[in-house]
Write a structure and sequence with these properties.
single chain; alpha+beta; Homing Intron 3 (I-Ppo) Encoded Endonuclease, Chain A; Aminopeptidase; 2 domains; seven-stranded mixed sheet; 30% strand; globular
Length: 333
């Protein structure tokens, strides 16, 4: 719970025109479409940050952030108190009857009286979702900030009641023909390409999430092996994969990446060779690939040498598990 800034009359009108409140769930929903990243959908408005759900709205070229619970209060009562409190202590329960104006001292006493709410990872549920539902969450919570270039096969959401707090995306392997190292046909192999959760989750949330999606793959697909890479350029060593009982197969070869100057954003060098074919049949670079290519040409981006990535696999049946145990023993020796 933080102190609210004053909203202009123009902002208030913009909120009224773009959002509606659902009294049954306490959620907000968009009433209009947006061109911002093309990510606005008909689903629940906003993403979770620091335990609260919040919304970003563009107005006259500027992006404004609003906490959902303040918007809910405003849509019901026409005003926004300087401070609002969740009566039951649950930050995502934004039903108007669960909100009340408060002060710093009163809110402090309320927090002490409620104590800390401790949840178990088994209280969460996992369900398949669409890439359109997954993308906004990845933009907010994954270090890559995008889902560009993914040949998506399966997407999953991790839910706390009705609120999405995590996303996993499985796709075809990013590098052409690499699947031949792991399967007889391309559909035997699936790569875990994105994994992200909000910050405020209990210990072991990510390993629980991975385990639930792997069980789903076993029961609903013919996939034989899950492959994933831990990017050493990002300081990742694969801790979550060790915790999830993946097998470690060593490192990929070193290569080149494209770095945007003035930021830590890195792209694989094949990014600028990512094409699509529109209805007119003319093969074109995808918009994000064209943009990065132009940044290379005008000096805003550069090639940098990249370290190899750590390779992890998870066999989905006993036959594959025996095979990869032998490969792991060879790596160790």
């Amino acid at each position: 719970m933080t102190k609210a800034r004053e909203w202009s009359e123009e902002e208030k009108q913009n909120i009224k025109e773009n959002l509606r409140y659902d009294s049954e769930t306490g959620n907000l929903f968009w009433t209009t479409h947006s061109n911002w990243y093309g990510l606005r959908t008909k689903g629940t408005a906003g993403c979770i940050s620091s335990g609260y759900r919040g919304i970003r709205i563009w107005l006259k070229g500027k992006r404004f952030y609003y906490s959902n619970h303040r918007v809910v209060w405003f849509l019901n009562y026409g005003s926004v108190p300087k401070m609002l409190d969740h009566i039951d202590g649950y930050k995502l329960n934004n039903r108007v009857e669960n909100l009340r104006p408060t002060t710093i001292s009163l809110n402090g006493r309320n927090c002490k009286a409620r104590g800390k709410i401790v949840m178990s990872v088994t209280d969460y549920t996992v369900s398949p979702i669409t890439i359109q539902e997954a993308t906004p969450f990845v933009v907010d919570w994954h270090y890559s900030k995008n889902t560009n270039g993914l040949a998506t096969r399966f997407c999953f959401g991790l839910f706390d009641k009705t609120e999405m707090i995590g996303v996993i995306i499985y796709a075809y392997l990013g590098m052409a023909s690499v699947w031949k190292k792991y399967g007889e046909v391309e559909t035997d192999v699936v790569e875990l390409r994105r994994l992200c959760c909000i910050d405020d989750t209990p210990k072991n949330t990510e390993s629980y999430f991975i385990a639930q999606t792997i069980n789903w793959l076993r029961q609903n697909t013919d996939c034989k092996v899950v492959v994933s890479y831990a990017d050493s350029m990002q300081g990742h060593v694969g801790t979550i994969y060790y915790a999830s009982n993946f097998y470690y197969l060593g490192m990929t070869a070193k290569g080149r990446s494209i770095k945007i100057k003035g930021s830590n954003r890195l792209y694989h060098e094949k990014t600028i060779r990512t094409y699509y074919t529109p209805k007119n049949g003319e093969r074109r670079l995808k918009p994000y690939a064209q943009k990065i290519k132009e940044q290379l040409e005008n000096g805003e981006a550069e090639y940098v040498h990249s370290k190899g990535k750590h390779i992890f696999v998870y066999p989905l049946n006993k036959k594959e598990r025996r095979k990869y145990k032998m490969r792991v023993n060879n790596v160790k020796s």
